Amino acid sequence: MVRKPIVISLACTALWVGTGLAAGSVPEPFRGHDPESMFTIRYGDVDVILRAMVVDIGRSTRQVADPAEAPTGTRMTTRVSRSTATEGNRFYFEEFKDNEEYRAVLHHVRLSLEAIPARMPLEHFTRTEQLAYLLNLHNIALIDELVRIYPERNLKQELDGKNSLLDTKVLNVAGVPLSLNDIRHTILVQNYNRDPLVIYGLFEGVIGGPNVLKRAYTGENVYRLLEANAKEFINSNRGSAIYKDRTFKVSSFYERNREFFPNFDAHLKVHLMEYMDYPERQTLIGATAFRPDIDNWTIADVYGSYWRVGGSFSTSQAAMLDAVVSTQPDGLGGTAVTNFSVAGSSYIAKTEPLATISSEQLELLTSLKNKEEAANLVREGRVTVEELGTVETDAPNGE
Predict the structure, then answer these.
(1) Same domain as 272, residue 232
(2) pLDDT digits over 147-157, tens only?
(3) Residue in 368, 372, 371, 363 with CA at minimum distance from that of residue 66
């Protein structure tokens, strides 16, 4: 027996073979895990995209936006949900519209994530590392799908309709076709003992769901970030609201993830009590029923859903992926290595809005910009799969 270090390739390779996932069963590549594993996955490529494209709004103040009248002469009106219009982090979906280069980079990162279990089986990682991987894979794949249909503004049909893209087998991981709902409702439910905390890592692409963050999940940060996201969402107008007659209104997001709350009202109440702030917490104590009917299916973009909006919102530049450099196997039993480099020479310049908008829309965009500047987070990272220890392997010829 020898102790042989392992380096994992993140080469962008898709393996479109195998059979589909049987309903209700966790597919083989996702069943095993190693609680003693020292392997980690780092997501520098995902970090770069999220840093560049996510507008971090910060914690909700539960303030309801004031109604505003459109200025005289404009013919533009856009209905917004005043209770949630200025809540929730936003993603610059509009920067991918008609931009094949950006789409190609995003899709490349998605494929590289899909390829990881084919090169390094997930059974060699801890459940925590696997959780970070599943959330990053889900979110990047969803964003990749949404940029293809953008600028669709209301995503209810796409996400919750009869032919939801969440039910389509858009992924192929270790030869197993997967839908995003396979990850949500099968793998996460069964592998994480219905722990409701994991659902706050599922970006839905809409204002009414949990935040997309400006950094990737990792084995080291995943539970800390999930707790922070849970607290933000629960204590926002998107997540909960005092109603009446000992009934509490909550997001329809909880209904869509009912598997994590088998005894819905009782289990949801226990969960919310863990993170709810005052004064809503005091009312929640006496609640005996929940109405999961708060929603906002508006895509969580910045300004693109307001057709030909005006006023300068953001002209900052943010680094994007510049290149993917691959080395081939050395022919001596080594493995391929793929480096993802973050290059400052490649920038995303936010496009300038084009025309005049209503005072309500201008107020919304100004509010978002002010919140972004107050809450902006900066993160750094490189993409590698590391071995912090060693693993025993059988060497040929007993060496």
Answers:
(1) no
(2) 999 999 999 99
(3) 363
